[in-house]
Structures are given as C-alpha cells and as structure tokens.
C-alpha cells in the first residue's frame, strides 16, 4: 500500500485554517486544502495538499491513501517529533495486511528535514517537492541561507567581514566631516579586515579563546602564575628596551659595531632583566604547583637554571665587548655551570628522600 504523505512542518493547516491533524482520506484532505487556500491563498502548503490529491487520483494500479501531517510553528525538533507522532497515528489507523510505503510531498527543503523521522517509521519510495513555477527554488534558497547564518562559525566568517566593508563609506564620510584624511580610515579598516582574515585563516582565534579562558580560570582560581606572568612580561619588555639602550651607548662610544659586538651589547643590557622575568615566572608556577599539591623538588631547578644561563650569557657578552677581562668570563662560566649542577644534584637528593606523590594524569 502506498501512503501519499503531505507534510506541513510549520502547521499552517492548523494555525490558519483551524484543521485538526492528522488528516486521512481523500475527501478529508480535499476539504483541508480548500480551507487553507481560502484562509491564505498565497500559502504554498495548499499546493502540497492539492498535489497529494493529484497523485492519489493519478495512481490506479495499487492501493493508495492520502494523508496530511503537521508540525509546530517553531519548527526544529519539536516539529519533527509531532510529525512522527502523527505518522504513528496514521499507521495505527490503517487496517491492511500489506506493507505500507510512503511518498512524501513537501513545498521545499525545510519540510524535507523531517524525512529521517518518517523513514524511521516506514519506507519512503520518493519525495515530491511542490513549488510555484515563478518562484522555483526560492524557498530552498531562503532555507539554505537561514541554516548557514544560524551556524555561529559561518555567521562570524561571512557577516563580520561584510559588516566591516559596509562601514567603510560611512566612516570615511564621518572622517571627512571631522577633518581626518579618508585614506587613513580606509587603511585602518583594511588593516582590521586583514588581521581578522589572517586570524581566521590561521585558526588563531581558538588559541586566543583558550588563552582568555585559561586567564579567566586562573583569575577566579587564585593562581599566582597569573600575576607573576604579567610581571615577567613587563620585565621582559624592560629587558628589550635596556638591551637597545646598551647597544646605542656602545655604538655612540665605539662607532660602528660588528654583528658579534652588536649581539653582545644587546645581551649585556637585556639579560639581567630577562633573567629576572624568568625567575619571577618560574617562582609563580612553582607556587601554584605547591598549592595544588603537585609539587616536586625538581621543579625548583627552573629559577637556578635561569640564573646559571644568565650568568654565562652576561659573562660572554661583557667579555666580547671588552668591558671585562678573561678572568671574569671564566668565573661567570664556572659559576653558571656549578650553579646548574649543584641545584640539580641537591634537589634530586631531596626528592629521593621525600615521600613521592603520583604525577597527575
């Protein structure tokens, strides 16, 4: 037996014509179609009902029945669930020993989204889409665009650049009234659009979102690392500025410098501050691991390693600049090496003699 199933997913039949569903039988479907066409002649769902009647009358070589089912106005899962319930009601009322198959009639892609629900209840032989010829595929295009714009990722990718482009003219006009060159506004907007496209293309927005989430989590969890990271960043910037100033002073005193002397001058000026940044950051991380009861003695090696490396770099850089003699560099190299070795050995012994706590998974 073939069941011609007319689908009205947004329940125009009930809301506009006041027809209770499901509607089963040729005469009942015809009355429902006339009632809907009378209530709203422009509603395409009336064409679906008349197409169902046409198919019912056109097929004469097998048993056939026509029915109409509806969803709810809001659509989505609730509409699909109601269509499934009405299909179950129809199947329960059909008294036949034959296998029932369905031919689904819809007015566009939106109504066809309920096909998996129907297929879960009976086989579907085909789908007949009915649209007004003058508006071929118009509803399908609208539904596709609606689905695309409902996706947050796609919406951000399409609408944000489009919005920036649409802002160019009004911002240039406003800038002209305020006496600001329009080329400057266009340049700023182009830069913002370029950065946005670059971030989307490289997938950097996920890294930024994760960093913000970690910072927010650290802020509310009371992590010391959040504060020490900010201080370490400030010290790192200061170290860069100090290195540049030391380089300028060396160039002012000795004129042009070789690439080796340039690197040495920058290192001598920057290393103390960068070392302080490293020590600050490592102390914050060690404090957080201790508070989280994940402390290991070997974690204390980090600040000592930073100091050892800083001593070696500073000694070599100062020697290359001629500020110190060979003995100072030898002392710096020896001190850095011994500091690293002693700290490693000391904390390894301390960890071997202290109770061990399982590493976090």
Automatic annotation (TrEMBL):
Membrane-spanning intervals of the chain: 178-199, 220-243, 263-283, 304-322, 328-350
Source species, domain of life: Archaea
Keywords recorded for this protein, A-Z: Membrane, Transmembrane, Transmembrane helix
Keyword Transmembrane helix annotated: yes
InterPro entries tied to this protein: DUF373
Organism (species): Halococcus saccharolyticus DSM 5350
One Pfam family here: DUF373
Name of protein: DUF373 family protein
PANTHER family named among the record's database cross-references: DUF373 FAMILY PROTEIN (PTHR38815:SF1), HYPOTHETICAL MEMBRANE PROTEIN, CONSERVED, DUF373 FAMILY (PTHR38815)
């Amino acid at each position: 037996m073939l069941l011609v199933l007319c689908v009205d997913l947004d329940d125009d039949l009930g809301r506009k014509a006041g027809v209770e569903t499901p509607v089963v039988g040729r005469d009942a479907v015809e009355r429902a179609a006339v009632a809907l066409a009378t209530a709203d002649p422009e509603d395409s769902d009336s064409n679906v009902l008349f197409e169902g009647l046409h198919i019912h009358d056109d097929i004469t070589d097998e048993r056939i029945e026509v029915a109409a089912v509806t969803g709810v106005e809001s659509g989505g899962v609730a509409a699909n669930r109601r269509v499934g319930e009405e299909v179950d009601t129809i199947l329960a009322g059909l008294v036949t020993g034959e296998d029932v198959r369905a031919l689904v009639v819809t007015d566009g892609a939106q109504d066809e989204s309920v096909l998996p629900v129907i297929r879960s209840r009976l086989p579907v032989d085909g789908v007949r889409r009915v649209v007004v010829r003058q508006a071929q595929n118009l509803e399908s295009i609208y539904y596709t665009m609606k689905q695309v714009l409902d996706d947050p990722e796609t919406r951000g990718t399409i609408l944000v650049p489009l919005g920036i482009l649409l802002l160019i003219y009004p911002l240039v006009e406003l800038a002209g009234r305020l006496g600001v060159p329009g080329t400057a506004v266009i340049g700023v907007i182009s830069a913002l659009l370029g950065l946005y496209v670059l971030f989307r293309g490289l997938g950097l927005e996920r890294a930024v979102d994760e960093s913000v989430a970690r910072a927010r989590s650290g802020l509310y969890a009371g992590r010391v690392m959040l504060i020490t990271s900010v201080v370490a960043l400030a010290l790192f910037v200061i170290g860069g500025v100090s290195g540049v100033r030391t380089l300028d002073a060396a160039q002012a005193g000795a004129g042009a410098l070789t690439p080796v002397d340039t690197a040495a001058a920058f290192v001598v000026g920057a290393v103390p501050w960068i070392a302080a940044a490293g020590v600050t950051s490592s102390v914050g991380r060690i404090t957080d691991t201790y508070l989280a009861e994940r402390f290991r003695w070997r974690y204390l090696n980090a600040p000592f390693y930073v100091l050892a490396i800083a001593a070696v770099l500073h000694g070599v850089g100062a020697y290359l600049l001629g500020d110190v003699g060979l003995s100072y560099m030898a002392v710096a190299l020896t001190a850095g090496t011994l500091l690293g070795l002693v700290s490693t050995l000391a904390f390894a012994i301390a960890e071997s003699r202290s109770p061990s706590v399982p590493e976090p998974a």
